[in-house]
Each structure stands twice: as structure tokens, then as C-alpha cells.
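Sequence, please.
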């Protein structure tokens, strides 16, 4: 099962594998096993960023890209992998000036051991750089053949529309994808502002934090559960009556369908207008089947209504 990525010529599996754990909570051997299992399960879009994982002790950024690059080189499967990475947050390549984008892209290409990036995102907005300069710099990479398609992440709806307008007025490569924070317990900001912008500008949406730092897998139900993993702190904000109500609704559907809670949460995202594929990370191979199973689970209107009601306050 594949789907088209917006207006691009990319065909993707309806789940993107997040690469933020590679070289951080997943060592290289485990990361390769996860990547192998993802590919064997039909997956092809791997999402990373040049900053992953500069926050970890001893890391400087680019570790995830390097793991993916070595894996593709060893497997000789570059043509089968859709590589998405991002610029603006690496400690050595901060911001979205034209010179920084060009230098960061070269560094990412080197770590990924490839001559092109399939989908290159502006990771975070840079209000210190004129947007016209940023858009032109991305277009230059597309013109040079170093980037196939442009994406935008963590931009406001207003800035997304401004970017698209600049691209269209100047004949620059227009973005094809939008990567926002969106899930069952983080809905309103996306649905109110960004969803309409994505629709009118024909952007494929690939939400990150699709499982709310693991909260929507159902494994965090008490304060003690938060100590189970490095991502527990990210789930802490949802550990309240409303959040647990969403998990309970997911569990009801999961039990009835013989599915994992995580699969149902991702299937809800995949049902949303404009969403092409949610992004989810797997620290181990054992976590991957529940993610890949989203391709085979279509929720009924009654199930969607139950989840919509449970998550309405978010």
C-alpha cells in the first residue's frame, strides 16, 4: 500500500519512520535492525534531521543521518528509500540564511552518503532571515538536483502561505509537504490554522509526535510509568483525566479490532484530511509491527466519532 505525497512524484508507505532515536536511544546495530524491519514491512520514507541527536551527551548532531547513510550504503538500497531531512537546528548550521542552507545541505548529503535528498525541510522558522532569501536558497538546491522536493516544518499558517506565495510569484520550487505537531492530544492548533493552509496550498501533511512521545501507546498511565523511558517527560503533560480518557477510547477500539493502541492512534491521524502519513519512531524492532499495521487498519465512522469526542478538549 502506497500513497502519493501531495503534488510530488514521490510514492510513500502510509507511515514514515522517525529517525530521531538513531544514534541516541537506539545504538547503530539496533537502528539498522529497525530500518531493515521497516523496509521489509513495506516502509520507504525515513524522516530525520541534521540536528538529531545533538542533545545527547557526546553527540554533536548528524548522528541519525550518518546511521541512515551507512545503512543505505551497505544495503545498496538508496533507490528504494525516500529520505527526508531538515535544516536550521544543527549547532554548526543554525538558521535559514542562504549560505547556511547551502552548507548544511552539503553536510547532510555527505552524512547520508547520497547525491540528493528526496524531501528537504526548513525545520523551524528563522525570522532573522528574509523569507525570500530562504525560499530562493531551497529553490537553488532543487535546481542543482541536490534536493527533489521542499517541505516546511514548525511554521505558522501565515508563514506557510507566505512561503508558497513567494515561490509561486518567483517561479521557485513550491513546497509539497508540511510537518506539524499533531495527534489526538494536540489537535486544536493544527486543525484551526494549519489544516486549512495545508489544504489550500496542496501540502501533504506528515505529523510528528503522532503518538505523543509514547503516551498514545497506552504505556503511561501513572506517574511511575513515566520513568520507563527517556521519552516519559514528553508524555507527562497528558497524564490527566482528559488524556487518560483518550487512551481509554483507543483501548476500547483496539480491543474490539484486535489491534495495538498505537495502531489505532495512528489510524486516526491517517483518516484526517490532508494527512499523507504520520511519523512514528521505533526504538526497537519489537515496537515496529504496531506502527506498520496502520496501513491495514481503517477506522469506522463510529470509531472516529468516539475518538473525536474523547479528544475534543485538546
Amino acid at each position: 500500500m502506497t500513497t502519493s505525497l501531495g503534488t510530488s512524484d514521490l510514492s510513500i508507505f502510509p507511515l514514515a519512520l522517525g529517525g530521531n532515536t538513531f544514534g541516541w536511544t537506539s545504538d547503530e546495530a539496533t537502528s539498522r535492525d529497525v530500518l531493515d524491519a521497516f523496509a521489509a514491512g513495506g516502509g520507504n520514507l525515513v524522516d530525520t534531521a541534521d540536528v538529531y541527536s545533538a542533545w545527547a551527551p557526546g553527540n554533536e548532531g548528524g548522528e541519525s543521518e550518518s546511521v541512515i547513510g551507512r545503512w543505505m550504503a551497505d544495503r545498496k538500497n538508496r533507490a528504494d528509500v525516500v529520505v527526508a531531512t531538515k535544516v536550521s537546528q544543527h549547532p554548526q548550521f543554525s538558521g535559514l540564511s542562504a549560505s547556511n542552507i547551502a552548507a548544511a545541505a552539503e553536510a547532510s548529503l555527505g552524512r547520508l552518503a547520497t547525491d540528493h535528498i528526496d524531501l528537504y525541510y526548513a525545520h523551524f522558522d528563522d525570522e532573522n532571515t528574509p523569507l525570500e532569501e530562504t525560499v530562493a536558497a531551497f529553490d537553488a538546491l532543487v535546481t542543482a538536483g541536490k534536493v527533489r522536493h521542499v517541505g516546511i516544518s514548525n511554521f505558522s499558517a501565515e508563514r506557510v502561505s507566505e512561503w508558497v506565495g513567494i515561490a509561486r510569484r518567483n517561479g521557485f520550487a513550491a513546497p509539497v509537504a508540511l510537518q506539524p505537531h499533531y495527534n489526538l492530544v494536540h489537535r486544536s492548533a493544527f486543525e484551526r490554522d494549519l489544516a486549512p493552509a495545508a489544504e489550500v496550498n496542496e501540502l501533504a501533511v506528515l505529523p510528528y509526535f503522532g503518538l505523543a512521545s509514547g503516551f498514545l501507546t497506552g504505556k503511561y498511565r501513572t506517574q511511575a510509568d513515566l520513568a520507563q523511558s527517556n521519552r516519559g517527560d514528553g508524555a507527562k503533560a497528558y497524564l490527566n483525566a482528559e488524556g487518560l480518557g483518550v487512551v481509554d477510547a483507543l483501548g476500547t477500539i483496539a480491543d474490539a479490532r484486535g489491534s495495538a493502541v498505537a495502531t489505532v492512534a495512528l489510524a486516526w491521524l491517517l483518516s484526517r484530511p490532508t494527512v499523507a502519513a504520520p511519523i512514528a519512531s521505533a526504538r526497537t524492532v519489537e515496537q515496529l509491527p504496531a506502527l506498520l499495521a496502520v496501513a491495514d487498519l481503517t477506522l469506522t465512522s463510529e470509531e472516529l466519532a468516539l475518538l473525536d469526542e474523547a479528544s475534543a478538549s485538546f
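The first strand starts at residue 3 and ends at 4.
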